Structures are given as C-alpha cells and as structure tokens.
Amino acid sequence: MGLTSQSTGAGILGNELKLEHTCEEKVIALGGNPNVGKSTVFNGLTGMNQHTGNWPGKTVANAQGKCRHKDTDFILVDIPGTYSLMSNSEEEEIARNFICFGNPDTTVIVTDATCLERNLNLVLQTLEITPEVVVCVNLLDEARRKKISINLTQLSDLLGVPVIGTSARSNQGLTALMDAVYDVTNRTKRNHPMKITYEDAIEEAIALLEPSVKQLLSNRLNSRWVTLKLLDGDKTIIAALNKYLELDLMSSESILLKLEEAKVRLGEAGIDQENLGDRIVSQIVNTAEGIAKQVVVYRKEEYNRTDRKIDRILTSKLFGIPLMIGLLGVVFWLTITGANYPSSMLSNFLFWIEGRLTVFCQWAGIPSWVHGLLVTGIFRTLAWVVSVMLPPMAIFFPLFTLLEDLGYLPRVAFNLDNYFKKACAHGKQALTMCMGFGCNAAGIIGCRIIDSPREKLIAMITNNFVPCNGRFPTLIAIITMFFVGSATGIFGSVLSALMLTGVIVLGVMMTLLISRLLSKTILKGLPSSFTLELPPYRKPQVGKVIVRSIFDRTLFVLMRAIVVAAPAGAILWLMANLRVGDLSLLSHCAAFLDPFARLIGLDGYILMAFILGFPANEIVVPIIIMSYMAAGSMMELDDLTQLRQLLVAHGWTWLTAVCTMLFSLMHWPCGTTCLTIKKESGSWKWTAVSFLIPTLSGIIICFIIANAARLFGLV
Predict the structure, then answer these.
(1) CB 613 within 8 A of CB 715
(2) How far apart are CA 213 and CA 247, in angstroms?
(3) From 319's CA, which of 98, 251, 449, 678 has a CA 20 to 30 Å away?
(4) HSE of 99 in the Cβ direction (CA atoms, 13 Å)?
(5) How many CB atoms lie within 10 A of CB 699?
(6) pLDDT reported for residue 347
(7) CA nearest 665: which of 694, 690, 689, 638?
C-alpha cells in the first residue's frame, strides 16, 4: 500500500535512526503501554501539546521535544505506545528498533500504577535490551483513589533500576523523574538490571550460542537478548541488524553451526520452534506477576468496582448501542444549538469586512473584475467556510475530546467491534470513523492506528460515509426546511438532532456494508484480532481539553480547508461571470449535467454545486443559492424560510431534499481528504478508489429512491 516513514512513524528515526542533536544533548526514549499517560508525561516535560489517546497505538507518529534539566539539554522521543517489544505489530517494531538502534542515552518506561503487573512485561523486555532504563510509575493519584499502594523502593531494588512515582496530570514527580534520568544518563549511578532466568534447556542453548553472537556484535547490542531472538527465529531482528548495523549474523558459519546445535538440544528437551516463544513470554509474565505480588497492595478488594458497574451498562448488548446513539444525538444537539449564534455573529463580522474591502477598492480605483475575483470571489468563499466551519468545530471537537479523555471512545470501539468483525474489517475502524465526524481528513490520518495494510485501506475508503462538520450545515438546513417544518425552539432543535442522528446511523450502516463488500472483492482477507484495553474512567481536564482541541484540531482543520477553499472561490467567480452567449459558463455546465442529475433526484445546478464544492463542502449551499438567483457571486439569504421559498420555486420537493441529503452523505471526499488519502496510502490508485466508491454508492441509492418514488406516484 506504499506505507511511508511519515505514515508509519518511522520517520522520527530519521536517516536510518540518526537523530540530529549536538554532542551535549542527551536523547531519551519515552515508551510505555497505551493509556498510561505517556504523552502527558511528554507534554509535562517538554511543554509540547502532544495529543493523547485512549486506544492501542495512538502515538504511531512519534514526537520529539526538548527540555533542560540541571546543566544538560535532553531530547525526548515519544515512541509508540505498545504492550511488548516482540515485533508482532508496526508499533512494536518501531519502538524496539528505536531502543535498539536509535542509541538513546536512557529509556524511560512509563507504567500505570493501577495495573502495574501488566505494564511490567514491557519493563522486563526493555531491561533485556538495555540496562540504561528508568521506570516511571505514573497515575499514582488514581492508584490512591482506588486504594492501591506500591512500594517504589522495593520495586527499584527488584528491578535494579531507578523507579520514580509520578502524577503527570498535575506535574507531580516530574522533577524527580528527570533527576533519575540525569543520573543514569551521566552515569553518576550505575544500573544493575535484574536478569530473567529461563528454564534449564533454554539457558543451556543461550550459553552455547551467545559467545559467537557476542564476538560479532562487539558490544553494540545486548548479546543475550539477540541470542534469544535468534533461537526464537525472529527474522525482523536479523533484518534490522543488517539494516542499521550492517551486520549479517546469518553469514557467520560459527553462528549457524552453534544455532543449529542449540536447536537440536532444545528439541531433545521437548522445546521446538513453535513453543519456544511461548515459553519465553510465559517466563516474563510469571516474573512480572511475582514482582507485582511483592510490591503492590490492594487495600480494596474490588478496586475498579465502579468502572465495572458502569461498563455493564455502557458496553452491554442491550443498552450499549442505544446509549451510544443517544449520546451521539446529544453531541449533535449541543453542536447544532450552540453553533447558530456564534456562526451568525462571525458571518456578520466577516461580511462587514467585505463591505469595507469593497469601499477600499472603490476608493483606490481598483478594476471591478479584480474586486470581483478577490473580494466577492475568494474572500466571500473564505468567509462562508470560516463562519460555517469554525463554530461547529469549536463545539464538536471539545465534546469529542472530552469523551476521549473520559475514556468512553474505547467503549464505542468495543460496542462496534463485533459489527466490524462481521464486515471483515478491523475493530479500530470504529475509532477512525468517529474521528471523521469532525473532519474526514483527520479520520484518514487516524487510520494509522490500524496495523493491517488491507484493513487500513478499507477504513480509509469508507471513512467518507460519515459526514464531516462541513456537511452538517447542508444536512441540518434541509432537515429544518423540509422535515421539521414549523417546529421552533428546543423542540425544533431536538427534532433536527434526532433526524441528523438517523442520517448518521445510515452512514454507519453504509460503512459496514461497503467494508464487507471490499473485504470480499478487491481487498479480500479475514479480520485481524487486536487487544483493546478499556482504560479506567478518568475525570477530564476540561481546560486542557478545550485548548488542545481548539489548537490541535479545530484551527488545524480550518487552515487546511482555507487553503483549498481560496482557489475554489476564484474558479467559482470566474465560472459565474464568464459568459458564452446569454448564459454564464456555470449555467451551461449545469444544463449539460441536468439530464443525468434528474435521474438521481437532483438537478443540474445541485450537481454542479457538489462538483464545485469539491475543495470544501461548506460552499455547496451558497453555490446553489447563487446559481438559482443568477448572481455573479455567492449570496446569503436572511433566514431558512426565504431559502425554502427559493428552492421550492426552482422545483424542489421532498424527494429533491431527500436525494440531496443522501448525495451529501455519499459522494466524493473533499479535496483536503483526497490529498490526505494520497499521502497516507502513497498511491493515486487507492485515492481514486476512495473517490469512486462513495460516489457510485450515492448515485445508485439516489437513483433507486428517486425512480421508486416516481414509479409509485409519491411525487
């Protein structure tokens, strides 16, 4: 599928794992399981807004940040969140390769104090690779709330490395953490990491092979760990050694002979290639369990009883899906209701600026065509995009991020996992689909959390079936004008939210249907399994959520939309003002498209508006208004009543409204999303497929509904 270093996160290693830094700067690798607050620790130390997430592999694209402690500058590298370093997934391989070949001066492993035993598996695996490790036991505040206590001193003695307790959300313990990192990095204190002892046959095999491996490695990597990987038949470490150290172990006759002899001895002990890995993992798990029993005390028998009670409702077969749909409806209602007033104010302000620009152009004697192109073309288009997009995004993204911070989004994935499995797709696709509600381009980027290239492509191709905030205004306006009727106030907004939720549910159903069709045709395969951790419910940090969602999501998406909307405004103005005969170029194009558009329940102007709205979905309705009023620039009517009258006067019926809504739900991705698909997939072919599949789906469904309604005399 053409995965790039940027899309996988390997780009952080740069030039074959060589970070650009001075000799005085020290490189710190920051690793840990998902949901342990690793990115929060990173943010607290560097001040960067590295976005956190509550599902495996969220931090697939690594981040770098700098901090200074005492007299040393540190470069912190936030490597992917992973449960192990066994190289069974993209995240695991990236994390392992950076620790092995990125030459970090120290590796900090962040763990969750509320589930330390599971996190110790990654700690022990890291200690097998490098002794320069500091363990950060984070979320101590949550552990105290759950009546869990951890003897950090004893844990440090058992592991043989520094162990520091932190509550990163409140910046507690971060200074002590950097003190420990400073000591390890500058070798003021030597670590003596514990050694995991395996069963006798495995230890004998290690002893037989390791001397040859050690001689060839020349202390560039832990020879005992590499020996274990060779015995386990891990081909990825052999390839990595060849790539990063230019060292081909399998070309050594001594190693090949010793490896074969070691395998024979293992076979005599009843250990074959199939179960050796299981025995190694079992010993690591048993060791972690033994350590946890010594240092962790649960003063409350059911420390997560409240979370389990809540999950019995939110993830139940009976209530899980209805509650999820209901919560989605509430989010939409808050977005619809809350966005109206600020959107109106922003629109009035921007169009006031347009008036001042017009006055300036007249005063300066600027030609009318220049004024038309720049002001009524480009600026007016941008004004529409900003006033329509910004308020809903400024409400939707914080609400979405609050649910994420609270820990609810993994429950959404849990509820939908079975449906996506039946569609032969990946359960994580539910999360990327949710991200598409805010922006489909963001949803495409979110597909990085899916390991399988096949399933990643399915998620990308189908993400457009959930409407982004740019399509919400069109859907809401049509619902309000043609189906809500005279209902006003809170009842009208609730009814609009319910109907919009119904449209969204249809989009989800289409996502599942098309995912299954793709998995049975051009992207054949079985769904891969994945481990989805249900993190504890946490009190959201409202202030940080608002700031992060505004700057990291809202403004980022808005700027990308502005970049593609500006040239669209110029093209639109030119088409509306360049005339061939008595009609504008826009009218000629609409007349050409009209016969086909009528077949799918639209008209030529509506279809032309969708085509010209390719750079930004927000400008579809303004183009329709401009076309019907035969104006040379986009126009805005005072209220939806006037707009309904205009649409009805040009032949709109309930069927036109339904087909326009369906085509808005199912048509080509916007320009920003298409460019994002190209970047993430590395292929124009899959970008074209992502363009065609939703478009053909929309055409077919609109054709069936329009002609069925006509056949039965419903219009």
Answers:
(1) no
(2) 11
(3) 449
(4) 33
(5) 17
(6) 82
(7) 694
Q: Report pLDDT for 59.
A: 40
25 class by beta-carbon count within 10 Å (0-12 exposed, 13-18 middle, 19+ buried):
middle
Q: For residues 426 and 458, what is the distance between their CA atoms, to the nearest angstrom?
A: 9
Delineate the domains of the chain, giving CATH numbers in brackets. 5-185 (3.40.50.300), 200-271 (no CATH), 320-524+541-711 (no CATH)
Any residues with CB less than 8 A from the CB of 503 and at least 6 apart, and which? Answer: 467, 475, 479, 661, 665
Please give the Cα distance from 244 to 239 (Å, whole number): 9
pTM, two decimal places:
0.68
Q: Which of 643, 711, 702 is nearest to 482 (CA)?
A: 643
Asked if residue 633 lies in contact with residue 377, where contact means CB atoms within 8 angstroms, the answer is: yes
Beta-sheet pairing, 579-580 with 583-584: antiparallel
Looking up tokens 């805010």 gives: 438
Residues 626 and 645: their CA atoms lie apart, in Å, by 14
pLDDT of residue 202: 93
Residues across the chain: 715
| Angle value at C-alpha 304, between 302 and 305, nearest 5 degrees | 65
pLDDT of residue 136: 96
Nearest to 620 by CA among 629, 630, 611: 611
pLDDT for the residue 343: 79
Query: Residue 26: which H helix or E strand, with range?
Result: strand 26-32
Write the single-letter amino acid at 629. Answer: M
- Which residues have a Cβ under 8 Å from the Cβ of 624 and sit 6 or more positions away? 605, 606, 609, 647
Edge-to-edge strand ranges of the sheet holding 133-138: 63-69, 72-78, 26-32, 106-112, 133-138, 163-165
Residue 684's SS3 state is: helix
User: How does DSSP classify residue 299?
Assistant: S
Q: Give me the residue label for tokens 């969204």.
A: 504
* Dist. CA 155–CA 38, nearest whole Å: 20
Dist CA 148 CA 136 (whole Å): 16
Residue of 80, 83, 117 whose CA lies nearest to 99: 80
Which residue stretches of the chain have pLDDT < 50?
1-16, 18, 49-61
Residues 6 or more apart in contact with residue 681 via CB below 8 angstroms: 1, 2, 457, 460, 687
Rounded Cα–Cα distance for residues 494 and 480 (Å): 11
Name which of 400, 474, 497 is nearest 442 in CA terms.
Answer: 400
Identify the residue whose tokens are 């979405």. 400
Q: Which helix (H) or strand (E) holds 413?
A: helix 409-422
Cβ atoms 155, 326 nearer than 8 A: no
Who contacts 134 (Cβ-Cβ below 8 Å, separation ≥6)?
106, 107, 108, 109, 161, 162, 163, 164, 177, 180, 181, 184
Look up residue 5 and give its two tokens: 């270093």
Cβ neighbors of 623 (< 8 A, separation 6 or more) are 572, 608, 609, 612, 613, 634
Q: Considering only CA atoms, which of 105, 284, 97, 125 is closest in space to residue 180?
A: 105
One-character DSSP codes across 108-174: EEEEEGGGHHHHHHHHHHHHHH-S-EEEEEE-HHHHHHTTEEE-HHHHHHHHTS-EEE-BGGGTBSH
Token duo for residue 659 = 């087909």
State both tokens at 580.
Answer: 């061939």
Helix (H, G, I), strand (E, B) or coil at 583: strand
pLDDT at 659: 96
